[in-house]
Amino acid sequence: xxxxxxxxxxxxxxxxxxxxxxxxxxxxxxxxxxxxxxxxxxxxxxxxxxxxxxxxxxxxxxxxxxxxxxxxxxxxxxxxxxxxxxxxxxxxxxxxxxxxxxxxxxxxxxxxxxxxxxxxxxxxxxxxxxxxxxxxxxxxxxxxxxxx
Length: 148
Hints:
By secondary structure, this protein is mainly α. The protein is built from 5 helices and no strands.
């Protein structure tokens, strides 16, 4: 019976998918995107091939922690930041192993670490990754709002 198209239940199930709600479609209904069609990588720059696995993991964490398009136009700056952040972590590990004091090796490591951290902080601010780069200096952060 279903082969000839005489089965009313089978023909009804075929037509159910074509039925729509009557009337005008609201703006809110038009903005709904099915979860299957949503791609979270859109607007996020892919990690460059020249990065190591550790640097690539940090790149992914940073790009997925911000909204899409956050780093557009600043991919080179982001790459420098990722490289510098991993470099700082390696310097910190070397500083922990070295004997603190007046040895020449420790002094060189400490100076290099200090310069690297300063550069990483500058890059993070430029990329708007730090809380201070998102605050308005004219707005109080705690307490009552000023009365005009």
